[in-house]
Fold this protein.
Amino acid sequence: MIVAKDNTPQLTPEEYFAWEEQQLEKHEYINGQVYAMGGGSVNHSRIAVRFTTIIDTHLDGSNCITGNSDLRINIVGTNNYTYPDASVTCDDRDKTTTQYITYPCLIVEVLSKTTEAYDRGGKFRMYRQNPALIDYLLVSSTSIEIDLYHKNDAGDWLIINYKAGDKIELKSINLNFPIEQVYRGLTLEPGNGE
C-alpha cells in the first residue's frame, strides 16, 4: 500500500530498479516518482498470506506464477510499477522477465483506511488497462467482506460483493472456496483498519 511520496528526484525505470535494490523498504513507481510502501496490520498480513497460499496450492503443477507482495506488476503500456498483495500470471510473456510481471489475470489488494480509495479508484483504472486481467479482488481486513471486480466475456467489469457465508468464485484461475477460509482465526474489528 502506498503511504507517502518519497523526496527523491524523478527517476527513469532503470534508475528506479537500481535505486530500490539499495532501499530497506519497497516503493511503487508511478509516473517517474517513487512512493514508499507502508507496513500493514497483523490481519492485513495474515489475509495476504492466506490468499497466496490458497491460490498457490490450487495452481500447483500448472504453468502459472503466484506472486506475493514482493512481486512487482508493470502496468501495461506504461513505465509504472506496483506491488499488489497477491497476483497470478499464466502468460508466457511473464516468464521472460526477472524483476516484474506485466500480464496478471488475477490481482488481490487487502484494503486499509489509507489505501482503500486509491485501490478502488486510481489503481484499478491503471490495472484494468491490462487485457489479461480478469479478476481484481479488494479484501477487507476489518470485516468479512470481499469485492470482486470481474471482467466478463464482453469485456465489461462486474462488481460482486461477497460476505459471510458466501463462496468466492475466481474464474480467472478456476477456483472456488468459502470466504471463511480467508478469515478463519482472525479477530475482526470493523472501523479499525490500518
User: Anything to note?
Assistant: Residues 42-59 form the longest helix (18 residues).
